[in-house]
Amino acid sequence: MKQNPKKWFNLFVLFLGMGSIYKLAYLSDIFYVPMQETFGINNTQIGFLLSIYAMTQTLAYAVSTYVSDRVPTRVLISSSLIITGLAGFYFATMPDWTAMIVLWAIWGAFCEGMYWPSVAKAIRGLGPKEEQGRLFGIFSGGRGVVDTIVALTGTYIAFSLDLGIKGAIIFFSIMDIAAGLVALFFLPKLAAAEKEITEKVTMAKTLKVLRMPEVWLVTFVIFFAYICNSATTYFNPYLHNVFEVSNATAAIYGIIIAYGLKIAGGPMAGFFIDLKIKSVTKYLRIAFMVVVIFFFLLILTPASPVFRIVAIIIPLIISLMILSMRGTYTATIDEVNIPAEVTGAAVSIASLIGYLPTMFANYMFGSILDSNPGVLGYRIVFGLTMGAAIMGFVVASMLIKKINKNKLASAL
Fold first, then answer.
1. Radius of gyration, CA atoms only, the chain
2. d(Cα 143, Cα 15) in Å, to the nearest integer?
3. How many CA atoms lie within 13 A of 251 on its CB side?
4. What is the mean pLDDT of residues 393-408?
5. CA–CA separation, 124 vs 350, rounded Å?
6. Would you kindly state where each structural domain of the chain is located, as residue ranges?
7. Of 92, 100, 112, 360, which has the maximum CB count within 10 A?
8. What is the mean pLDDT of residues 232-256?
9. Rounded Cα gap, residues 324 and 283, in angstroms
10. How far apart are CA 177 and CA 78, in angstroms?
C-alpha cells in the first residue's frame, strides 16, 4: 500500500466518526443502571428502545440503497453524525418516554441506515481492490481505539468529574457533531466510477435461494449468534445488581465487553481459522460450544460477592467468543459455494432473517428481568441464551455435514 498521507488522514476521519456515533444509541452498554436511574425506565423499556432502533435501521437500509447513489458520500456521513449529535443534546434535557422512542428511531435511521453504508463506500474509494482487506482491517482497529477512548472519557466525565450520565451524553453529542464537521470539510467527494454498485435481488434469484438448504443453515447460524450477542448487554447490570459492583466499575467493564474485546475477537478467530482448522463453519461450531459451557458455568455461579471474580471472568470469555463469531459468520456464505449469480440474494436473505433477533431479543430479555427480579431473571436470560447457543451448535454441525456432502459430490 502506497504511503499516501491524504489516504491515511481520510481513514482517520472515518474511524473518528465511527468510534463516536454509536455511543448515544448504545448508552446502555456503558451506563445501563445509571440510565435506568436517571430516566426512570426499566429493563423492558431499554429492550424496547433497542428494538425500535433495529426496526428503523432495517427500513433505513432500504432507503439508503436509493439515496447513497444520489447524495455525496461525505454529505451523508457528516449529516448523519451531526443529526445524531443534535438529537443527543435534546436527549441531555431528560425528555419523556415518548420522546426517547423518537430519538432511538432517529438514531436507528441515521447511525445505521444512512451512516454505515456511506462509510463502507468511502473506505472502498480510498484504494484499489487489492488494498481493501488492509484498509478495512486498519479501519476496524482504528475504530476500536477511538471507541474505547471516547467511552472511557465519557465514563470519566460521568463519575470522576461527578457530572453524571447527562455530562457523558453532552460529551458524546459534541464528539458526534465535531466528527461530522471534520468529515464535511475534509472528506473527498467520491468519483462516479468509485460508487458502489448494489446487486438487485430479483424474484427469480430469491426463489432459487429459498430452495437452497445451505442458505437457510447459514441464516440460522447468524440468527442464533445474534441472540447470544444480545445477551451480552446484561452482563453489566448483572454484575452491579447481583455482585455489588459499583456503577463506575460496571461502566468500565461494559466498555471492555462492547469495545475492547472487539479489537481482539476478529483477529483471534481469523488466526485460528487460517492456521488450524481451515473452516469458518467449524470455528463457529467450536465457538458455540464454548459459549454453551461458560453460560452454564455462569448460571451455576453462586450469587455472592465472594464469587465476584468468577462472575467477572466468565462473561469476558463469553463476550470474546461471541465477538469472534460476529467477525466471521458472514464468511460462511463463501464456504458453502453458493453460485455467484445468487450470492447477492443469499446475503440479503441471510441478513434479513439472521438479524431479526435485534428486533425482539432485548425486549424479551428486559421483560424477563422485570418479571423475575434478582438473580433468577438473569439466570433465565442466560439459560435461554445457552439454549440458543446449543441450537447454533446443532445448525453449524448440520452445515458442516452439508458442506462435506457437497465436496464429496463435486469430487465424483
1. 21
2. 5
3. 23
4. 88
5. 23
6. 11-188, 199-412
7. 112
8. 93
9. 10
10. 8
Angle CA 189–194–197, to nearest 5: 120
Q: Given this chain, do its domains 11-188 and 199-412 carry the same CATH topology?
A: yes
Out of 159-163, 216-220, 257-261, 309-313, least confident range: 257-261
Per-residue pLDDT at 1: 45
Distance CA 12, CA 412 (A): 51
Q: Is the pTM of this model over 0.70?
A: yes
The stretches of 301-329 forming alpha helices (DSSP H) are: 308-326
Q: What amino acid occupies position 307?
A: F
Angle at 100 between CA 98 and CA 101, to 5 degrees: 65
Query: What are the pLDDT digits (tens) for 367-378?
Result: 999 999 999 999
Question: Which superfamily does 199-412 belong to?
Answer: MFS general substrate transporter like domains (1.20.1250.20)
Separation between Cα atoms, residue 74 and residue 182, nearest integer Å: 10
Cα of 312 vs its chain's centroid, Å: 21
Q: If we measure between CA atoms, which residue out of 276, 329, 1 comes closest to residue 136?
A: 1
Q: Give the separation between CA 9 and CA 126, rounded to whole angstroms.
A: 11
Q: Give the pLDDT confidence score for residue 201 in this predicted structure.
A: 53
HEC string of 25-84? CCCHHHHHHHHHHHHCCCHHHHHHHHHHHHHHHHHHHHHHHHHCCCCCHHHHHHHHHHHH
Per-residue pLDDT, 332: 75
Q: Where are the alpha helices (DSSP H) in 280-356?
A: 280-300, 308-326, 332-335, 343-354
**What is the CATH T-level fold of the domain 11-188, as seen in this structure?**
Growth Hormone; Chain: A; (1.20.1250)
Per residue in 113-134, is it b (16+ CB within 10 Å) or e — as a string?
Answer: bbbbbbbbbbbbbbbeeebeee
Confidence of residue 215 (pLDDT cuts 50, 70, 90): confident
247-278 pLDDT, tens digit each: 999 999 999 988 888 777 666 776 777 677 77
